[in-house]
């Protein structure tokens, strides 16, 4: 089917199309006018997810933001919050409402649960994608009641959010309070054992001699570590020098020689003298006094440079021997100090164990006391990270039914249904409406087109002579000239 055929079918059967469109539009209009008006009230709330905890003073990571907001939306839509709303508005105390509950549920369950489910069906919670704002909307036939329910949901949510934070904290505070008593007894027992052992053995937990010897050992250990590093570095340099000499290489390229300031200074002076020598040699003869003097200076500078390089190379071996001797001395001193410290530590093992017991008991008690303080403060807090941005007010205009939108949708749907209805009628009663359709249907050449007299006369009046030529051409006969 071509587009032109489709248009001819619609023009030929315009009555079913118009009837379907009018029926759909009138039905939609009637339903929209008969349906009760619904009013939607909205409360906006800000959830300060990135704010600092008022008790713990910590910041939650931003990666948890999507999951946290989804959790808050689920809490708002929870049955518990809805039951709190029912209780706050005292809806279950109404006799008419209780009668409706009996009719709807046959007195099964409770009126509070049934009313909570009814309120949740008309509740809509929309979190913002770009901010921390959450909108709570409730739809009803009474604008005043809709605003009241929306605000009640926000209040109940804030209350529930606070309870979810406070109730676990109260349980934790009670638990840590009981544990503190046990930990305090353990700490007192450990301290008593330590004091008794110190009085029996004559030891002090603050022995100055032990502290001095320990500090000296730590100092020797640090010096020994540095001496080891210096000895290893000196040994590496000595091996590098030996490798250079074994290969017959010039020690001048050694890093230590290159880093020698005197060697670098002598090299700079030698390079300047050689440059001066090249400049004068091109102007003066080889026997000129100035040339001879420069030659002598250059030889002398080269000799000094060589001697200094030899001295720098020799100092590498000397430094390595000194570093090894220093390392050996510190090793022996540290071994002597360890032996001295071990002698001082004899008999203190038991006291160290008792000290550890006291420290462990003290740490456990301090940690429990800190957690008890935190949980106790959390259990007494009345602050939340949720605040109401805009409270719901009774809406002035209904949110549904939307007459204009419904009529536009009904016109679109009616037009589509009308077209479908016309095509169905055409499929059961197919007709030919043009010469081309006839030729395609019978698969034969077209000899002529018959036109009624009224149509022919109208065409002659309108088109004149060209109409006659068109009729003759349709019969397949060429018109005569003139």
Give a verbal description of the structure:
With 482 residues, this protein is mostly helical. Among the domains are: 161 residues, 2-Layer Sandwich (Bacterial polysaccharide co-polymerase-like), CATH 3.30.1890; 139 residues; 36 residues, no CATH class. It is 71% helix and 6% strand. It contains 16 helices and 4 strands. The chain has a 4-stranded antiparallel β-sheet. Strand 2 and strand 3 form a beta hairpin. Helix 4 crosses helix 6 and helix 8 runs antiparallel to helix 11. The chain starts with a helix and ends in an 8-residue tail after the last helix. The C terminus is likely disordered.
Give a nutshell description of this structure:
This protein is mainly alpha-helical. It is built from 16 helices and four strands. Among the domains are: 161 residues, Bacterial polysaccharide co-polymerase-like (2-Layer Sandwich); 139 residues; 36 residues, no CATH class.
- Report Rg: 52 Å
Strand content: 5-15%
Morphology call: flat
Structural class: mainly alpha
Give the averaged pLDDT, no decimals: 75
Query: Which architecture of the domain at 35-173 and 382-403 per CATH?
Result: 2-Layer Sandwich
Measured as a percent range, the helix fraction is over 70%
What is the H/E order?
HHEHHHHEEHHHHHHEHHHH
Sketch the major β-sheet.
4 strands, antiparallel
The tally of strands reads: 4
State the end-to-end distance: 41 Å
> What is the C-level CATH assignment of the domain at 35-173 and 382-403?
Alpha Beta
């Amino acid at each position: 089917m071509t587009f032109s055929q489709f248009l001819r079918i619609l023009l030929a059967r315009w009555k079913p199309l118009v009837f379907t469109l009018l029926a759909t539009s009138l039905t939609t209009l009637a339903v929209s006018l008969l349906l009760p008006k619904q009013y939607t009230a909205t409360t906006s709330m800000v959830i300060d997810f990135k704010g600092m905890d008022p008790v713990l003073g910590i910041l939650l990571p931003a990666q948890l933001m999507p999951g946290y907001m989804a959790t808050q939306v689920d809490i708002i839509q929870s049955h518990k919050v809805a039951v709190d709303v029912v209780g706050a508005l005292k809806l279950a105390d109404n006799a008419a409402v209780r009668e409706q509950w009996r009719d709807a549920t046959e007195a099964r369950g409770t009126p509070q649960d049934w009313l909570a489910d009814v309120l949740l069906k008309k509740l809509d919670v929309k979190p913002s994608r770009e901010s921390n704002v959450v909108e709570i909307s409730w739809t009803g036939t009474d604008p005043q009641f809709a605003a009241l329910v929306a605000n009640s949901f926000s209040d109940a949510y804030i209350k529930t959010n606070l309870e979810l934070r406070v109730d676990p904290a109260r349980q934790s505070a009670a638990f840590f309070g009981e544990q503190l008593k046990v930990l305090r007894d353990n700490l007192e027992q450990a301290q008593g054992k330590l004091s008794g052992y110190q009085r029996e053995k004559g030891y002090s937990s603050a022995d100055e001699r032990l502290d001095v010897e320990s500090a000296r050992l730590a100092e020797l250990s640090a010096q020994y570590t540095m001496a080891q590093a210096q000895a290893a570095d000196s040994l590496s340099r000595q091996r590098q020098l030996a490798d250079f000499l074994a290969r017959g290489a010039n020690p001048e390229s050694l890093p230590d020689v290159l880093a020698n300031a005197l060697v670098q200074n002598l090299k700079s002076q030698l390079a300047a003298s050689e440059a001066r020598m090249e400049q004068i040699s091109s102007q003066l003869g080889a026997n000129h006094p100035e040339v001879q003097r420069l030659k002598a200076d250059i030889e002398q500078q080269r000799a000094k440079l060589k001697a200094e390089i030899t001295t720098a190379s020799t100092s590498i071996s000397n430094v390595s021997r000194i570093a090894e001797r220093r390392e050996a001395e510190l090793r022996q001193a540290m071994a002597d100090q360890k032996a001295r410290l071990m002698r001082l530590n004899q008999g203190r093992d038991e006291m160290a164990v008792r000290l550890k017991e006291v420290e462990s008991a003290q740490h456990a008690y301090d940690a429990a006391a800190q957690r008890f303080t935190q949980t106790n403060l959390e259990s007494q807090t009345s602050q939340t990270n949720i605040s109401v941005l805009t409270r719901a007010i009774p809406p002035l205009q209904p949110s549904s039914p939307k007459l204009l939108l419904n009529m536009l949708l009904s016109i679109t749907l009616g037009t589509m249904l009308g077209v479908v209805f016309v095509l169905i009628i055409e499929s059961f009663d197919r007709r030919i409406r043009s010469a081309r359709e006839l030729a395609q249907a019978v698969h034969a050449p077209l000899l002529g087109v018959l036109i009624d007299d009224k149509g022919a006369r109208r065409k002659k009046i309108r088109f004149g002579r060209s109409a006659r030529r068109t009729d003759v051409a349709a019969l397949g006969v060429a018109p005569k000239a003139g």
